[in-house]
Design a protein that fits this description.
The protein has 305 residues and is of the alpha+beta class. The protein has three domains: 1-57, no CATH class; 68-115; 176-304, Immunoglobulins (Immunoglobulin-like, Sandwich). It is built from three helices and 15 strands. It has helices at residues 59-85, 91-99, 101-104; strands spanning 2-3, 10-11, 30-32, 39-41, 176-177, 184-185, 197-200, 206-207, 214-218, 227-237, 240-248, 252-254, 270-282, 288-292, 300-304. The two termini are 57 Å apart.
Length: 305
C-alpha cells in the first residue's frame, strides 16, 4: 500500500490527500475499463468493478491528436489564402464598392464621390503665449542697532554631598549549621552591632508552591570565626506556634522546601522571620549556644500558598 512521504501514513487508492497529516497528493491518473466503463487508478492492473484486466486507453489520445492536427492545418490554409488575396484588394476597389451601393438599394441615396488622399493635412493650432506676472518689489527694512547691556552674572557654587552607598553582598552558596540537640539563645547585656535590615522577599508577599526564593538582608557587620546570622522563623501549626532557628554565614538563606504546607491554612500559610547577629559556642552536652550581638531585625512575613 502507498505511504505518505511526509508522515508515513497509509494511503488508500483514490485518495487525493493523506488522511493522517492532510498532505495534498495530487489527482491520480485514471484509466477507463474497456469492459464496464468504470474509471480506476492507473496503478491498478485489475478493474475492481468487473475483474477484467485494465489496459491503457490509447484510442482517445490518438483521436485528440488527429483533431488538433486537422484544426492546425485548416487555420494554416485560411491564413495562406488571405495572404495571397490581400495585395489585389486596394483602396480604389473599396471606394468603387461603396459608390455602387446606391444602385443596388431601392432607396435613392446621394453618395458623394470620395477621393483618396494619402497625405493628411495638419492644421497648426496657435499656442497661448504666457503673460508674465509682475514680481513684488522688496522694500528694505531699517536696520535696528541693539545696545548691549552689561548684566552681572551670578556665580553658583555647588558643593558635592557624599552619599553613602550600601553594597549588596554577592550571592554565594548558603552554609547552614545544624547543631546537635536544641540550640539555646543566651541574652547578653551588651549589643554593639546594628540590627540587620531585611530586603527580600517582599514583606507580606505571596510565594507559589514550586517557587525557589530566599530570605535576604543587609548588615554592616563582618563575621568572625565564632559568629553567624541567626534566622528565627516561626509559624502556627495545628494552632500551636513552632519556631525554627537557622544559623548561616552569609546574608541570605534559600527557604527549605520541606517547610511548605506546615503553616495552618487559617493563617493563610503565613511565615514570620527575623535575623540578628550572634556568637555561637558549644556547651558540654554538644548543644550550640547563641549569644546576641545585635538587636533583631524588623519582623517580616510571607505567605507560602
Amino acid at each position: 500500500m502507498k505511504k505518505c512521504s511526509r508522515c508515513g501514513g497509509e494511503i488508500k487508492p483514490g485518495q487525493a490527500a493523506c488522511p493522517t497529516c492532510g498532505k495534498f497528493l495530487g489527482r491520480s491518473r485514471q484509466v477507463r475499463c474497456r469492459h464496464c466503463g468504470r474509471q480506476s487508478p492507473r496503478s491498478l492492473a485489475i478493474c475492481p468493478a468487473c475483474g477484467q484486466r485494465l489496459q491503457p486507453d490509447w484510442l482517445r489520445p490518438v483521436a485528440i491528436g488527429v483533431l488538433v492536427l486537422t484544426a492546425v492545418l485548416l487555420v494554416a490554409g485560411v491564413v495562406t489564402q488571405v495572404r495571397r488575396s490581400w495585395p489585389t484588394f486596394g483602396l480604389a476597389q473599396l471606394i468603387g464598392q461603396i459608390e455602387a451601393l446606391p444602385s443596388r438599394l431601392p432607396v435613392l441615396v446621394d453618395v458623394p464621390t470620395l477621393t483618396p488622399t494619402l497625405t493628411p493635412s495638419i492644421t497648426p493650432t496657435p499656442s497661448r503665449t504666457p503673460t508674465p506676472t509682475p514680481l513684488p518689489t522688496l522694500t528694505p527694512l531699517p536696520t535696528l542697532t541693539s545696545t548691549p547691556t552689561n548684566t552681572p552674572t551670578p556665580t553658583l557654587t555647588r558643593t558635592a554631598t557624599p552619599t553613602a552607598t550600601r553594597t549588596r553582598p554577592p550571592a554565594t552558596s548558603v552554609i547552614t549549621r545544624q547543631a546537635t540537640g536544641t540550640p539555646t539563645l543566651t541574652p547578653t547585656p551588651a549589643q554593639a552591632a546594628a540590627a540587620p535590615v531585611p530586603i527580600e522577599p517582599e514583606n507580606g508577599g505571596s510565594q507559589a508552591e514550586r517557587d525557589t526564593f530566599r530570605l535576604a538582608w543587609t548588615s554592616d557587620s563582618v563575621l568572625r570565626a565564632d559568629q553567624c546570622f541567626l534566622i528565627t522563623l516561626r509559624y502556627l501549626r495545628n494552632g500551636a506556634e513552632e519556631v525554627r532557628l537557622i544559623c548561616v554565614l552569609t546574608q541570605q538563606w534559600y527557604v527549605d522546601k520541606s517547610l511548605y504546607g506546615l503553616a495552618d491554612q487559617e493563617t493563610d500559610r503565613a511565615y514570620y522571620w527575623t535575623v540578628r547577629l550572634v556568637s555561637k559556642t558549644t556547651d558540654a552536652s554538644g548543644k550550640e549556644v547563641y549569644a546576641p550581638l545585635s538587636p533583631p531585625s524588623a519582623e517580616w512575613h510571607f505567605h507560602w500558598r
